[in-house]
Amino acid sequence: MSAHSVSKITETPRLLFLSLVASCAGPMQAPPDAGPVASPCASCHPSHTAQFETSRHATAAVGPRYVALRDQSDLRTRAFCDSCHRPVVGTARGLSCESCHVAVGNTGTSNARLVWDRNGAIRGSFNAVQTAGHRSAVHGFISSAELCGTCHEVRGPGAFHETPYTEWAASPSATRGETCADCHMSPTPGQSSPRARGPAANETGIVSPERSLADHRFVGPDHDDAPSLLRDVLTIALAREGDELVATVQNTLRGHYYPTGARFIREAWMEVAATRIDGSRVVLRGALDSLGRLQSGPLAPLALFHDELAAGLPAESAIVSVRAMAPLERRVFRMVVGSESPVISQIIVRARYRPASVTLLQSLNVDTLVPVYEVASASIPW
Predict the structure, then answer these.
(1) Which of 182, 212, 242 is the last residue of a domain?
(2) How far apart are CA 250 and CA 181, in angstroms?
C-alpha cells in the first residue's frame, strides 16, 4: 500500500460493477460518465484541454491497436483492460480530466486500483483559488508516481505485464525525488526541465495567480511527439578490433528501463549498415523485409531490447525473456564484418524503435503503417 492508499472507497464498487458489465457485454459501450473529453473543464482551462486532447490518455479506449488486442481477448481480459483504458471516471474514448483530478489514492499501485472521491474537491498540486466551477484542494497524490503507476504497472493475463512503477521505485530518479510527471509532463519530453509559468485558469471575474504549468500532452512512445521523447535515450560508441565491430550502448534514462511499458508489443533493435566505397549503402544486420518486418537469420538485428514472447497473441502468450536495459545500464555488442569489408568505407550503427510490432499488427488485421524512430546513431570509418 502506498502513502496515498486509502481504506474507504467512495462509490467505486457500484461504478466498477457497471463498467465490468458493460465491458463483458461485447461491443464497447459508454461508461457512466461518457461524454466529450474535458468538456466541463475547457471553458476555464483551454490550454490544458487542448494539450490533453493530443494525448493517448484522451483516446485510450479507441486506439486501433488497443481495440484489436482487446477484442481478440476473452471477456474477463476485456474487462481487465477497460479498467485502465476506459475507467469508470472517464469517457467513452478514454480518460478525462477527472480520471486523475478526483483520484485520492489507491488500494495498490497496479491494475487500475484507483480510489476516487467524486463528491469532493478537484485535486491539484498547488493552492487553488476557489471558483464557481468547482471546489479546489491540494493533494499530494496528483503529482505522485503512485498515481501513474496505478495504471502503468500491469500484472495481467498472458503477456500483459508492465513494470514502469517497479523500475522507477528502484531507479536513480526515485532516489533524486523525480517522479513520472517531472519528465512526462515537462515541456521537454523525457527530461526534468523548468516549466513555463502562467495562470492555470481564465475564469471570468477570477484572477488566477501564475503557476508552474504542467504539460498535459503526457508524451509517451505512442504520442505524435515521440521523436522528442526518444531522441538520445541511448548512446552508442563504436570501436574496431581487427575485423570485429565493437558497439558499446548505454541507456541514459534514470527513471525506468529502455524500453518500458508494453514491451510485449514494441520493437526496439540495433541496425548495422555499411557504406561502400562506391557510395552505396547496405544493411548488414537489423534489416526490414518488404512488408516492414524485422528479418531473422543472417540479417537479424545486432541486438533486441523488447520482450521476447512465446508463440501466439499477447493474451494467449507469455514473456519468455526481458531484454530491456535498466536505467544507466551499459552493454557491449560485437559483430564480425564479413567478406564485404574490403569495399566498405564506413559502418553506421543505429538504435531503432517502433511503437508496435508489424508482425503482431498483421496478425490482428490492423493498419501496419507504424513509424520507426531513430533513438541514437554512430558511425566509424572502416
Answers:
(1) 212
(2) 24
Residue 30 to residue 78: CA distance in whole angstroms: 14
Helix or strand or coil: residue 370?
A: coil
Q: Find where cell 561502400 sits.
A: 276
Q: Is residue 91 part of a domain?
A: yes
What is the sign of the dihedral through the CA atoms of 350, 354, 357 and 358?
negative
**Paired strand residues for 158:** none
Burial 120-152 (b: 16+ CB within 10 A, else e): ebbbbbeebeebeebebbebebbbbbbbbbbbb
Contacts of 342 (CB under 8 A, 6+ apart): none
- Quick check: is 217 in a domain? no
Whole-angstrom distance, CA of residue 44 vs CA of residue 97:
13
Contact by Cβ (8 Å): 305, 323: yes
Residue 183's H or E segment, with its range, is helix 180-184
Give the domain range for residue 249.
Answer: 231-381
> What's the pLDDT tens digit per position in 38-82?
468 888 889 999 999 999 999 999 999 999 999 989 999 999 999
Q: What is the pLDDT of residues 72-114, one digit of tens each?
A: 899 999 999 999 999 999 999 999 999 999 999 999 999 999 9
pLDDT of residue 216: 96
Q: What is the DSSP code (8-state) at residue 220?
A: -
Could you tell me which of 310, 304, 268, 264 has the C-alpha nearest to residue 161? 264
Q: pLDDT at position 212, please? A: 84
Q: What is the mean pLDDT of the chain?
A: 88
Cell of 21: 458489465
